[in-house]
Amino acid sequence: MISLFIGGEKSGKSDLALERFLELEPPRALVVTGKAQDFSFRRRIEKHRMDPRRSGSQMIVSEAGLNMPSLLTQHAGRGVPSVLVDSLDFWVFAVLENGGEEDFEQRLDELATALAPYAKTGRPDAVLVTCEVGLGPIAATSAVRRFVRCLGECNRRLAAMADEAVFCTAGLPMRLKTL
Q1: Which residue stretches of the chain have pLDDT < 50?
Q2: CB within 8 Å of 146: residues ≥ 6 apart
């Protein structure tokens, strides 16, 4: 089963996704995608890392960049029943930084293939977190427009695969697609 939690910056999507994830069978794998490139973001990552709900003997924590699809395939192949990916927008950043938009479709196909075992009924389960980019004004720069296009495409494709989709705003869930 795939559950997708989507919302804006600081909308509560990660907390709601974590609650859903912790309902799933252990052992669990947490796949984080953010890379600290400044002090405040490093502090934010450290706060997440120190949260006891995100650690412990029943939690495998992995940092992923471009290799996220292969990491998901490895977890499924090893029989890890529950995976949380937080968050897809940083993976899209990594793809665009390393291969550009030309490489994006192939990488998105790889991600969809890696998530296919999770889309089946039963185990394993994946909880995905992503930012919604379609609610703001049209971006002023071509780089930001490229990111918005790619993340929007990623979100649409994975929402179509998901069994459950939840939009988060002000810490409140709005169910878009239910089990």
Answers
A1: none
A2: 96, 101
